[in-house]
Amino acid sequence: MSTQALVPRRPVPALNVSTVDAGHFVLGETPAPTFDLIVFYRGLHCPICAKYLMELERLMPEFEKRGVRAIAVSSDSAERAQAMAAKIQAVNLRVGYGLSLAAARQWGLYISASRGTTSIGLDEPALFSEPGLFIVRPDGALYYGSTQTMPFARPSFQDLLSAIDFAVAKDYPARGEYTGPV
Fold first, then answer.
1. Cα–Cα distance between 77 and 70 in angstroms, integer?
2. How many Å apart are CA 164 and CA 119, to the nearest integer?
3. What Å distances lie between residue 108 and 3, 6, 41, 55, 111, CA to CA?
4. For residue range 122-161, what is the model confidence (pLDDT) as tens digits?
5. How many domains are there within the chain?
6. Quick check: 130 and 112 in contact, CB under 8 A?
7. Which CATH number belongs to the domain containing residue 39 in this structure?
């Protein structure tokens, strides 16, 4: 079964996950003033994910100034998510866990099978989702989406801050919404 792309300006799938320090996160229950930033990561086994999430943690005050709330989500267990939160020294970034692979597919994420032990000596889960990043409007509609088949070359958080500034200042609409014949 292939992944399915989400469509800008249309509702995103439900997202309801446990978090390391804050109970549950339910997308849309308390929408962010400007956007919700959903960052799906591969899991504790991924050193590139840790580096990426450290950068997001560092920039969280900038996102919060813009009315953007963020959460990092994986299909990891509570214990592995807690270890990732500790590794990235998460203070402002919520870390969610227990994403089902069916939910990952609904978000259009790619699924990979384990290749065993990683370069940092941790076992990959039998199956896990590859990275994705989504910006969601307070009404639950997709504003921006990016998915990867690999852990490399993800969207820059600094670039996203600039893009958010532009989008808000210019009331720039979500693009890529056309689904008719071509």
1. 20
2. 35
3. 5, 7, 13, 24, 9
4. 888 899 999 999 999 999 999 999 999 999 999 999 999 9
5. 1
6. yes
7. 3.40.30.10
| The residue to which tokens 């991924």 are assigned | 46
Domain span holding position 100: 16-168
pLDDT at residue 29 is higher than 90: yes
Are 163 and 108 within 8 A, CB to CB?
Answer: no
Residue 177 in domain? no
Q: Give pTM, 2 decimals.
A: 0.95
Output the pLDDT for position 121: 85
Contact partners, residue 162, CB within 8 Å, separation at least 6: none
Domain assignment of residue 1, yes or no: no
Contacts of 103 (CB under 8 A, 6+ apart): 13, 14, 15
Tokens standing for residue 41: 């990561």
Give yes or no for a contact between 25 and 98, defined as CB atoms under 8 angstroms apart: no
Query: Is residue 143 in a domain?
Result: yes
Give the distance from CA 37 to its chain's centroid. 7
